[in-house]
Amino acid sequence: MTEPGARGAATGRRIAIGLIRGAFRPRVLGAWRVPERGPAILAINHTHNVDGPVLMGTSPRPVHFLIKKEAFVGPVGSFLRGIGQVRVDRQSTDRAAVTGALDILAGGGVLGIFPEGTRTEGDFAALRAGLAYFALRSAAPVVPVAVLGSNERRGRLVPALPPLRGRIDVVFGDPFTVAGEGPGGRRTRSALDGATVRIQERLTAHLKDARRLTGR
Q1: Which residue has the higher pLDDT, 49 or 1?
Q2: β-strand 40-44 against 86-88: which pairing, if any?
Q3: Bridge partners (DSSP) listed for residue 147
Q4: What are the residue ranges spanned by the domains of the chain?
Q5: How far apart, in whole angstroms, are the C-alpha atoms of residue 87 and residue 72?
Q6: Which of 3, 91, 150, 198 has its CA 20 to 30 A from that of 116?
Q7: What is the CATH number of domain 6-210?
Q8: Residue 29 backbone phi and psi in degrees, to 5
Q9: What pLDDT, in 10s, does the model give residues 117-147?
């Protein structure tokens, strides 16, 4: 099976590589930790709008992101669909988005998720249950990813962007899987809550290690 928009995601990766490496100086650490094949979920901290494109341009594999529906407007929406990204309504249970994301994983693709749901301090302090749900349903390994430096304000020539030619660190962590609770209880509230806590512990520990490693 081939995941939805696989060719488009590969094209998006090539575009992102050119844009990100042209605008910034990304430093990528631990990319070898992303499984070479099969489904995987990249869980990324989120402090700036460029975090998604940065990951698309530095991941060793094409990434399909869950992106808020508000971004799918006009030509931008057509472009996002063309490069294999998934539209999601964050205000409700978007069954079409859930199905699309699970199809990506079932097809052996890579799903990118901001577990906090929106831009924050980027410290994984408040995770939503979406990441745990996809991890439990798909049994795909979760790869923690720390993007550091995208919210740097000093030296900005364009107020809305990180400093041009500034360094952005992308640190990939060790993949891990999330087990369910009880017989057939993979999607119970108890299983989701427990999985979310375990995921948060792993992501927070990775972010701490990434900051120590990069000095940021």
Answers
A1: 49
A2: unpaired
A3: 170
A4: 6-210
A5: 7
A6: 3
A7: 3.40.1130.10
A8: -125, 130
A9: 655 555 565 567 789 999 999 999 999 999 9
Give, in order, the Cα–Cα distances in Å from 68 to each of 2, 72, 80, 111, 191: 24, 8, 11, 15, 26
Whether residue 119 contacts residue 48, with contact meaning beta carbons closer than 8 Å, is answered with yes
Which pair of tokens denotes residue 179?
A: 């087990």
Of 149, 161, 163, whose CA–CA distance to 58 is shortest? 149
pLDDT tens, residue by residue, 146-158: 999 887 777 666 6
| DSSP codes, the chain | ---TTHHHHHHHHHHHHHHHHHHSEEEEE-GGGS-SSS-EEEEE--SSTTHHHHHHHHSSS--EEEEEGGG--HHHHHHHHHTT-EEE-TTS--HHHHHHHHHHHHTT-EEEE-TTSS--SSS--S--SHHHHHHHHH-PPEEEEEEESTT--TT-SSTTSPPTT-EEEEEE---B-----STT-TTSHHHHHHHHHHHHHHHHHHHHHHHHHHT-
In angstroms, the CA 42 to CA 114 distance is 8
Determine contact, residues 59/13, Cβ cutoff 8 Å: yes
Q: What are phi and psi of 156, to 5 degrees?
A: -75, 130
**More confident position, 169 or 46:** 169
